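Q: My labmate handed me this sequence with no annotations at all. I'd like to see what the chain might look like in three dimensions before we decide whether it's worth expressing. Could you predict it?
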Amino acid sequence: MVIDGGQPLPHWALNLECQKYFKLIHNLKSVPRPALPGFSVKRAERSDLPLMRDIINRSYEDISVDLDYLVSLTRLSGYEPDLWLMAYDEKGCPAGCAIAEIGREIKEGYIEWLQVLPSFRRKGLGSALVSELLRRMALGGADFCTVSGKASNPSAPEALYRKCGFEGNGLWLVFKKQ
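A: Here is what I predict for the chain of 178 residues:
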């Protein structure tokens, strides 16, 4: 068995499940102001955490987060309240959310979570949330932003991030016991 690039898997990995994750970078030099026709975005408050948990959990079949996990993210050194966003449709219904952070030591922004509920996908909301996060990171002192995600995700997040100006060919391999 070989991995991308023709490299053979090491012997210790032969009986493990291998999942591929992409890793991309944005230089934050050119970040357009997002246009959100039909949607509004606001900074998430702590009272929005249960709603954010529900949006994340409704967006995946194989991932589930609990409220304690989201609360723990607010205690990290990179926590920036302005990088926690909620998106609503014109009727005020929750449509998506986004969570990012900035590592102050190397001034790296990182998109941790970006979810758009299935009924609101393919309408530009994901791109608008990414653009808003990038704009806020640049204003907040980040020099660049990175993002990663499961390469086999059926909602094709890598294509969305590339459309938003992310570049690179980073690949992470995560090995798990079957």
